[in-house]
From TrEMBL:
Entry-linked Gene3D superfamilies: 2-enoyl-CoA Hydratase, Chain A, domain 1
Upper taxonomic lineage: Bacteria, Bacillati, Actinomycetota, Actinomycetes, Micrococcales
UniProt keyword Secreted, yes or no: no
Source organism of the structure: Microbacterium marinum
Family: Belongs to the enoyl-CoA hydratase/isomerase family.
Protein's UniProt name: 2-(1,2-epoxy-1,2-dihydrophenyl)acetyl-CoA isomerase
């Protein structure tokens, strides 16, 4: 089994750790396959309620491993095939009903932006830096960047990052909406957030994530139908019945 991405389980919490620190966690072919396989494994496991995505070493992810691409004799067809494998994992995670929080440190470059934005909530360290670098080496966005980046920061800012050599710091990323929080210990904070999902209405958090993520790319009428079916199914769960009853009881309590 590949150790390019580590999987750790603690009950309903799953932690995925990018583990190629010597390469700034750039994703090579082996790591990309591991990513896809873990996506299918975790999203098909009903015991997984939340996922923490983090990375070993000084950087979160430097994108695709361009050095490996250049030195292994890969051609464009091989790169397309590998991108499809990684994209399968990204799509599987994004469209799942499992909320994901990412803890980010150091450099997040190129496709690393897309991998980071696979998460629904991003916590960054004050030293984190974010940059595209695609065009600098004559390449185009992949790993969901052309969709996930403008969804996070807006089209104009996404183009600013993709069409210039702009590097933004953590505070700017927070201001732009690329990350949700900037803290000194992003790993600890990310785990705290994931556990809050598990301690709360886990299923409802997961379905809210799924509705928002998938709804961005569907007709409005289809989204409304999905919302109606989802809230109806949620209302019939034991967890919802307990929480709704408690809410109703508290609402009837006289206030003095």
């Amino acid at each position: 089994m590949s150790d390019t991405i580590l999987l750790e389980r603690d009950g309903a919490l799953a932690r995925l750790t990018f583990n190629r620190p010597a390469s700034l966690n750039a994703m090579d072919f082996e790591m990309g396959t591991r990513w896809r396989d873990l996506a299918h494994e975790l999203t098909s496991d009903d015991t997984v309620g939340a996922i923490v995505l983090d990375a070993a070493g000084p950087a979160f992810c430097a994108g695709g491993d361009v050095v490996a691409m250049a030195t292994t004799g890969s051609d464009g067809a091989a790169i397309t095939a590998m991108a499809d494998v990684i994209h399968d994992g990204i799509r599987t995670f994004v469209e799942s009903s499992i909320p994901i929080v990412a803890a980010v440190q150091g450099a997040v470059a190129g496709g690393g932006l897309g991998l980071m934005l696979t998460a629904d909530y991003v916590v960054a360290s004050p030293a984190a830096k974010f940059v595209s670098k695609y065009a600098n080496i004559g390449l185009t966005p992949d790993l969901g960047v052309s969709t996930l980046l403008p969804a996070a920061v807006g089209q104009r800012r996404a183009l600013q990052m993709l069409l210039t050599d702009l590097t933004i710091d953590a505070d700017t990323a927070l201001d732009w909406g690329l990350v949700a929080e900037v803290v000194d210990q992003p790993g600890d904070r990310a785990e705290q957030i994931a556990r809050s999902w598990l301690e709360g209405a886990t299923g409802a958090f997961g379905q809210a994530k799924r509705l928002v993520r998938t709804g961005a790319h569907r007709p409005f009428a289809e989204n409304l139908g999905d919302e109606a079916r989802t809230i109806g199914a949620a209302f019939d769960t034991a967890d919802s019945k307990t929480r709704v009853a408690a809410f109703a009881a508290a609402s009837r309590t006289p206030r003095h």
